Amino acid sequence: MTLIPLPAQPADTPWPTVQWPEGDRLTGAAAAHLDSAFAADSLETLGRTDALLVVQGGRIVYERYGEGLTAENTFPSWSKAKSMTQALTGLLVGDGLVDIHAPADVPEWRGEGDPRGAITLDQLLRMSSGLKFTEEYGPDAPSDVIPMLFGEGQKDVAAFAASMPLLYAPDRYMAYSSGTTNIISRALARALNAFGPDFEAFMRARLFEPLGMTSPAPKFDEAGTFIGSSFCFCTARDFARFGLLYLRDGVWEDQRILPEGWVDYARTRTTAIHDDAEPYGAQWWLGMGGPGSFSANGYDGQYTLLVPDLDVVLVRHGATPMPLKDNLRAFIGGAVEAMRSATP
Questions:
Q1: Longest Cα–Cα distance in the chain
Q2: Residue 17 lies in a domain
């Protein structure tokens, strides 16, 4: 598969480490389409939109917030945190502390003859470990994610997920699972021998601070594991900074933050068989904004969408009920198409 090249930061555009540069604001059909998310009748079709932010060419070209909200407000990541966990993994790969193609460091799988002991970080990152995990959020549906985050597993989310049996041979079947991301997060902490505040200090020093991300509030369980599946609050502008790091191939201020090739790894499609309509990479979803696009997606309709051929980062936050998710995805895709049509 040939990947669409990632655009470089324009020479005349400062990096948004301190403040975001602003460009010419979107007008016409693109602006009207985005504005429609804040119309009163959109509650019935898209749910509540709290923030929409578009960066093109490294500059903010659209920014709007819901009533009573501003650029200073933070928003929940939900599963957008998974893509941050992928970045943290890349930092440790670059440091030589983890090998994604070696068996993952998971104490629960060390028993003699345990077939889970062969599962690699790569298979966990690609959701193709073969572990049982039911990712359901409905109040009456069988679920593993709800007890992991809010019930019996919440004190040690990685141990809860690692206790699951194999349903499939590793690397054969892709099944989206928040549990696997928390297993990854604990493996990273073990590689660093840093838990809780020490791991948070690593996150800030190596990922957030170099990008000028001052708002992130990651959440940890009682075992000191970053709940990388679900919990890192940020402002829309800081989510956009994180997105821009990936759109710029892991480079910031002309310094390489993520290892060379790590972003391409994130956006290369997982080949394991899966039932999801949307293709998946490594803790990033693929294709929501057209060919070559990739995105960090959250349960409630949180998106950080990267569109390389347009040099666009689009951030959306709000609360969209499950029955309206397809409408929201179509809306996001429509926004990209409107911007594409307006591009000379």
A1: 64
A2: no
